[in-house]
């Protein structure tokens, strides 16, 4: 049975007003957080990103109030699952203009619980024809407008994941995950200066986990040529952690295959997964 619970500004609710700017214009942000043993292990990283994105969208982000809501809500939920936290610009009059300094403007916080569905530790990606548009002003933040991902997902068969490129043909991300590529002994991840979402798991891996195993990740543009000769590829997000990519297929060819890599027990991806699980057991299960 599919179970979901919704809280709006800390109170149980079934809906939001049709006047909400998040609903009308996608004027808002969201964080999808792993819930494990009644806690949110990456909460601080999520809230840091939420606050940063809110500044970009001129939305007031009261972290103290959000933490208070979470403290109230978490004991009422199952100990395992995921939470989706949405911060919108709140209600607004008809039209696009928005003034966060208006005292009548009140952002709205939605917190929704979902059970954790079954995941896989190894994935296959299909290259999507749909390409992400360039938008340096919004690149990196996790805003509510996900039409690009909706369009790309429409190309895919059920229960599959896609690989997204930008307008110049560089690799950016999977549908809901960031991507890391081992190329000539160096771990690379797309720079995300013009498009894509800078995930909190990506940040954690780059700043803590990968360096802890003696490796140095680097941000740069990654084209399909690099992908075709990559030694290892994995995707990551804040719900599943690290998942090895076994194959990436293009329109008429295989772009990457893990059959040319050593046994999974010996890969650098496995070392990174083990290090992540050591500090955050929910991602080592």
Task: Produce a short descriptive summary.
With 285 residues, this protein is α+β, with helices and mostly antiparallel strands. It has two domains: 5-114, 2-Layer Sandwich (D-amino Acid Aminotransferase, Chain A, domain 1); 122-283, Alpha-Beta Barrel (D-amino Acid Aminotransferase, Chain A, domain 2).
Please describe the structure with a list of short key phrases separated by commas or semicolons:
single chain; D-amino Acid Aminotransferase, Chain A, domain 1; D-amino Acid Aminotransferase, Chain A, domain 2; 2 domains; nine-stranded mixed β-sheet; five-stranded antiparallel β-sheet; 28% strand
3D structure, described in words:
- The protein is α+β, with helices and mostly antiparallel strands.
- Helices cover 24% and strands 28% of the residues.
- It is built from seven helices and 14 strands.
- It has helices at residues 21-25, 43-56, 63-73, 147-153, 200-212, 224-228, 268-279; strands at 5-8, 11-12, 28-35, 81-88, 108-114, 122-132, 161-166, 171-174, 178-183, 186-189, 218-219, 232-237, 241-249, 254-257.
- The strands form two sheets. Strands 6, 7, 8, 9, 10, 11, 12, 13 and 14 form a nine-stranded mixed β-sheet that branches. Strands 2-1-5-4-3 form a five-stranded antiparallel β-sheet.
